[in-house]
Each structure stands twice: as C-alpha cells, then as structure tokens.
Amino acid sequence: MGGGPRILAAAFAAWLLAIEAGCAQDTPAPGGLARPESAASEKDSSGARGRSGPAAESAEVVIDGSFGDWRGPARLRADDRDLLVRLSLPESTNLQAGVPAIALLLDLDDDPRTGSSLEGVTGDAGGGAELAVVFSPPGTGRGGGQGAAALVLPSSPGDGAAQPLAHAALDLVFAPTYAARDFEMRLSRRIDGPPALSEALMRGRVSARVLAVDASRWVAWSESLGSVELPPLAPAQKAAAVTLPPRRADALRVVSWNVLFASPKRNPAPFARILRALDPDIVLVQEWEKADAPALVDWFAAHVSPNWHALTSSGWGVAVIA
Fold it and tell me: Is 160 helix (H, G, I), strand (E, B) or coil?
C-alpha cells in the first residue's frame, strides 16, 4: 500500500485508545488462534531462490519472499543498514488485509523497563517496546484491517498516547505480498522520524516480539523473536541515478501497480511520468476504482500514449491495460 499511513496509524491508535486497558490474562483465548511453535519452522530450501554454500551464513538477506538466504534459527537480524525480521505465523494470512491484526513490537534498547506496548488490548501483549508496526490495523478496511501502520510508543505505560509514524519513514519492505504463513521484512536503522529512534538503532541491542490481536482486542498469541546486537552503522547513502534496462524486441514488459484508491485520477503527473519511462506493453492495476474500460483508455491516451485497450473486472479496481 502506498500513501495514507498516518490515517491508518491514527485509526489503529484510536481503536486501541477507545477501549479500557485490560488486564493481562494467562488463559488461552476462546476460539482464538493456536500459539505457534516456539522454534521457527525452517522450510526446505533446496528449491528456494537465494544463496547457498559456505558463504551463505554471512550473505545478505534479500527480501523476496524466498528464505534460502536465512541460515540458522535466528528470526531477528541486523546488518550495517537494516533490521531484518522473519515471521512464522500459525495460519496463513494476508498481512495487509487480514484478520487478526499482526503487530511487530521493537524494544530498541532491549530493556523491558523502558517503553510500553499496545494500549487497550488484553492478553500477553509484552512490553518495553518503543516502536510498533501493525499490519491490517482494525477499522481501516473492508471486513477488517488494511495496510500497515507504524506507531511510536510512549516511553512508559500511561505516559501519553502512541504517535503515528508513516511506515515509509521506516523504509519498510516485506515479502511475500500475498497470503502466507512465512514472511520476511526489512526496516531501516535510519528512521525518518523522532531522532531518538535512529539514535537507539545506531548501537546496542534490539529485541522484538510479534502479536496477533483479534477482533475482540484479545492477544490471540504472542511470541518473542529474540534479540540481536547491532553492528556498526554504515554511512548514509546518497540517492543514485538508475538506468532502466533496454527494451527487448522478443519480450513483453509488464508493470503491476497498486495505485491507492484511484490516485492517478486525482494526481496524474507522477503516474504518467513513470509509465512513460517504463514504456510497458501491459499494465496491471489494482485499486483504480470507479473507472470503466473507456475511462481507463481515455486516461492512458491523455497522459501516456495513444492506442491502449482496457479490460476491467469485478475486483477492487482491478484492470488490465495493454
């Protein structure tokens, strides 16, 4: 999802703050999800993309939805630029449009005496976290949550409300983007937000916990992802020019784009500029809402180039333009 992160975060914060803070409970949630195994389930990586061989343990983890480059049981890692997280959920879910909400809590100083947790939930919510990333925050989508929201948590329980932070400020990337049980994600150690967050990620130790919060605000399950010592932080990189690969005469170039609530209709210039640069043969769009095939053809003719054809579907703004 692009854009709207502050709305999503605010919606989640409002949902949490709208109910009374519950007491922690040790009994299983009635009808809730089963708690996952404490040890990470490692997939057979024989057919997975990624690195193999003696150098694999120190090789870079590529966020591509393949787990062959994750060696050993650790599910929280850090390199000189990013935090790397691997999630193994008890049931398949779409992180951006699923129930229950999945929350990643990060204790940036590995000290349970500082920080807090999500307010207004009952069950094993943990504590001591300074930063939370919530996937499918309740009340933000159709039939459940949608998207992802980042929250800067209070320095101690009851010390004010959680503050929304654009998830783009974390340079958050995860894969796969479809329903699955296993996910990998990356968060930058240089956060575009409160300076204290980036300062905490420069050195020291970080720990993490993952929660599932169901529709009744119960923590259906909670699991520690362990902790990791942060290596020295690399110097900040400057933006670099990127050259697109040349078009091949014997291949089709396909672009898939979630355009966030028909954004090209309100703000066509950036979308048109990128599409002209990519020069695709086929464009697959999602969330281009309330547009029939003739309207899509007219938009592409006006902003990209002439001679397009479009096919719409009953999906949520799903269409093919070629």
Answer: coil
